[in-house]
Specification:
Blueprint lengths: L23 E5 L10 H11 L3 E8 L22 H11 L3 E7 L2 E2 L1 H6 L22 E2 L5 H17 L4 E4 L11 H11 L12 H28 L4 E4 L11 H7 L3 E3 L12 H10 L7 E6 L16 H13 L3 E7 L9 H20 L1 E2 L3 E5 L1 H4 L7 H4 L1 H13 L4 E4 L5 H4 L4 E4 L7 H12 L3 E5 L18 H4 L1 E8 L6 E4 L14 E3 L4 E6 L3 E8 L18 E8 L4 E5 L3 H8 L2 H15 L5 E4 L4 E8 L2 E8 L19 E6 L5 E7 L4 E3 L2 E3 L2 E6 L5 E9 L3
Parallel strand pairs: 1-2, 1-10, 2-3, 3-6, 6-7, 8-9, 9-10, 12-13, 12-14, 14-15, 15-22
Antiparallel strand pairs: 4-5, 11-24, 16-19, 17-18, 17-20, 20-21, 21-22, 23-26, 24-25, 25-31, 26-30, 27-28, 27-31, 29-30
Helix pairs in contact: 1-2, 4-6, 8-9, 9-10, 13-17, 13-18, 17-18
Pfam family, one: GHL6
InterPro entries: Class_I_gatase-like (IPR029062), Divisome_Glycosyl_Hydrolase (IPR052177), GH (IPR017853), GHL6 (IPR028212)
Organism: Halodurantibacterium flavum
Length: 705
């Protein structure tokens, strides 16, 4: 039977309306669309894609309705039409949910002349012209434009149209604004002048990060209250990525954002397909039960070369949607420009949405479940500028890819939201490079380890306090059994680590005495109750070639393992994650996998065997488990766009059963077929004949009465 709780019509205009908004169409209009695009054509797109919700351009930079708010710029082609209103009416005729999109990041000359205080100012004191379209002005996100003026537009839209929410794009500002209002407010709040550098070590920068977080949080609250004052069941939904959660007070998000939207519209550069699902894991690391939407663009996503009104390949679109859906994200596609000169995106989007529809009931009935978690280093990352975070996350991404290659399912835990109960859901916690941790955070992790948790700690984790101040010792030293023996050095070249003795962590390196080391090294000494399966080879020159040989014997530990009655730990005091992310040396993947499997102490909840690369998701409820298999086997798995799909299989899937489980059965939700189940050693064994893009093994059993 269909799950009627997901029926959009049943939830129309109720407090829980967003729970029926599970497949979204976003139409971002161009200014000349009012005289060029077809409303009826877009209503047909809603139908063909099976969308039950839509986000439509309303106002802000350009108004697509007959606004009466002063300085709210109307499209030059608007005339006496109301394209926004016509789209709202058409969507409501299909029982769809509707969200109005506003964009407050820029204004035109008349508004800037009348209100110069609305314009952002650069570090040289000059009002900021738009970087891509110099005819207009960039707004200050932290002042009266967002807090006083934009609420007038929000009130007008919510009052005049039958909508469920207001969605804001580019609302968070574009770096530091040096306008007089920002200078005055920041000085009064912090005592500092506005910073001139984006350096986590700079006290004024850290103060600005906190002040910006407070200003934007206040804006979210203000806009949401304006919406609900007119429509109590509606909401303000800010556009944000997983990293954006660190920029807000969590209680504010919980109170004012019933669902979260991640604006990671596709891959660019060298970026693997599993990055779509990573968004889901990072959001639920903070808000486990909150619905999360992933925006997918129909065009290529290149930050330097922007072709926004374009179409990428169909397999790329479908695969990006599918990986997000396989990890519980709700699909949303966005099309820029209401005119459709290239229709090749419609069918791939419909296919991706159909994949989600096939697994949606099982996703809704289950919760994420696995033994392995990566610590999302929010405390560290929030000290970095947005432009620096990609590099700051390299260690975590390296660990993610190593686990994907290993066929190990994993989740995230956010260090600024973790609780003892949250940690107790997992057997293994990985810290790829969580440099900044408070004493309380370290104590919580240590207490969890003493209750039986198992740790893999790498890089410079816990070597600084939450404000970036260096520690004398690692904050997790008492659990890891290591001591800092020297400063962190790097970046270095030509470093190696040497195998020492026999240990499960250094298995699989037959024929090798040493392997590549890291680029940043922290010297450590180890306690007597530890082992060192790898030793650090003292670094030596990489040129001239005649000088490329080690001068000293390897004696200092490079990997430290410890096993106690409570649990196990592995300490890798160098940046193995970032080095693997950059170099992709198989030896580093093996070391990460060996470390995780050793501390896990046995098979994972789900193991797969077969050729191919898969991103695995695991969910459960009483009497059932859902295993999603996203097929990443593709020559373009690292570099978009995918040209075609390469089916992979068969895959032998081994799934742990709960004690007392009887008569397990399995169904493949995407292909729609039942498959045999055999039971071996408390595990259900299922053969998946073939995976095209996505398959979901839905295992159910009877529980012992």
């Amino acid at each position: 039977m269909p799950d009627t709780s997901l029926d959009p019509a049943r939830l129309l205009r109720t407090p829980d309306w967003y729970r029926g908004a599970t497949r979204w169409t976003q139409l971002t209009l161009a200014e000349d669309d009012p005289v060029k695009f077809s409303v009826e054509e877009w209503i047909d797109v809603f139908r063909r894609t099976g969308s039950n919700a839509t986000c439509l351009s309303a106002g802000g930079y350009v108004a697509y309705y007959p606004t009466e708010v002063p300085f709210h710029y109307r499209s030059k082609w608007l005339g006496d039409t109301d394209p926004f209103g016509a789209l709202v009416e058409g969507a409501r005729s299909l029982d769809m949910h509707v969200m109005a999109r506003v964009d407050p990041h820029a204004i035109h000359d008349d508004a800037a002349a009348a209100h110069p205080e609305w314009v952002a100012v650069d570090a040289e004191g000059q009002p900021r012209r738009h970087w891509a379209y110099p005819d207009i002005w960039v707004t200050c996100a932290y002042g009266d434009y967002n807090t006083e003026y934009m609420p007038q537009i929000v009130r007008e839209i919510v009052r005049n149209y039958d909508i469920d929410a207001v969605f804001a794009n580019r609302w968070q500002g574009h770096g530091i604004c040096y306008c007089d209002a920002c200078k005055t407010r920041f000085k009064a709040a912090s005592g500092f002048d506005l910073p001139r550098v984006t350096d986590p070590a700079d006290a004024s920068w850290r103060a600005w990060v906190a002040w910006r977080r407070e200003r934007l949080t206040q804006m979210v609250v203000r806009w949401d209250r304006e919406v609900q004052a007119i429509r109590p069941n509606a909401s303000f939904i800010p556009n944000m990525g997983g990293a954006s959660l660190m920029e807000f007070d969590l209680a504010t998000i919980e109170a004012h954002c019933p669902f979260l939207v991640v604006d990671h519209q596709g891959r660019h550069g060298l970026e693997p397909l599993w990055m779509a699902g990573r968004n889901a894991k990072r959001i639920r690391a903070t808000f486990r039960d909150r619905p999360v939407v992933l925006i997918t663009s129909v065009g290529p996503e290149e930050p330097v070369h922007r072709w926004k009104d374009s179409v990428t390949t169909g397999p790329e679109m479908t695969a990006w949607i599918a990986d997000g859906a396989g990890h519980g994200m709700l699909p949303w596609f966005t099309k820029f420009n209401g005119v459709i000169p290239d229709r090749r995106w419609i069918e791939p989007i419909a296919q991706g949405f159909d994949l989600h529809a096939r697994i949606e009931p099982a996703l809704a009935a289950t919760q994420p479940a696995c033994e392995i978690a990566i610590l999302d280093a929010t405390t560290t990352l929030r000290l970095h500028d947005l432009r620096q975070r990609d590099a700051a996350e390299a260690d975590e991404k390296g660990f993610c890819h190593a686990l994907v290659e290993a066929g190990l399912a994993f989740e995230f835990v956010s260090d600024h939201a973790m609780t003892p109960d949250m940690l107790d859901r997992f057997k293994v916690l990985i810290l790829p490079n969580a440099r900044c941790l408070s004493d309380d955070q370290c104590r919580m992790i240590e207490d969890w380890a003493r209750r039986g948790g198992n740790l893999v700690v790498a890089g410079e984790s816990a070597l600084a306090y939450e404000d970036g101040t260096p520690r004398d010792e690692c904050g997790l030293a008492t659990v890891l059994g290591t001591r800092v023996a020297g400063p962190t050095r790097g970046p270095l070249k030509n470093t190696y680590v040497q195998l020492a003795g026999e240990h499960p962590v250094n298995e699989g390196y037959q024929g090798a005495r040493r392997i590549i080391g890291g680029l940043r090294l922290t010297a450590v000494a180890a306690e007597p109750d530890t082992q060192a399966p790898f030793l650090a080879v003292p670094d030596f020159p990489d040129l001239p070639m005649e000088e490329v040989y080690p001068r000293e014997e390897a004696t200092a530990p490079a990997v430290v393992t410890r096993e106690t009655a409570a649990g196990r730990s592995v300490h890798i005091p160098w940046n193995i994650g970032a080095t693997f992310w950059e170099v992709l040396a198989q030896d580093h993947q093996r070391l990460i996998e060996n470390a995780v499997r050793w501390v896990l102490g046995g098979p994972s909840m789900v193991e797969i065997e077969g050729r191919g690369l898969f991103d695995i998701g695991v969910r459960e409820a009483p009497g059932e488990r859902l295993v999603t298999l996203m097929n990443l086997t593709n020559p373009m798995a690292w570099k978009p766009p995918i040209r075609e799909i390469f089916p992979s299989g068969p895959q032998e899937v081994s799934i742990a059963l709960d004690p007392g489980a009887r008569n397990p059965t399995a169904r493949l939700l995407v292909s729609g077929q039942d498959v045999p189940v055999t039971v071996q050693g408390g595990r259900a064994m299922v053969t998946v004949p073939q995976v095209d893009i996505l398959e979901a093994v839905h295992l159910t059993w009877q529980e012992q009465g």
